[in-house]
Predict the structure.
Amino acid sequence: MGFLDKLLGRGKKAVGDVTGDTSMRREGTYQEAEGVAEDRAESAEARAQEAREEAAEHRAERTDIP
């Protein structure tokens, strides 16, 4: 959803620039920023999941040692 929000936000900003509609431009700016934030959150969640999986592997290795 982040990519779509960024794309739609950029479009709204462009329409606002062309038409001189500052509220449309502002809405586009906020929507684009929301998309960026969503992408960052998804990336952070993926890194956190990888770290949890790595920790679980280390834990399993530690308990397998006689």
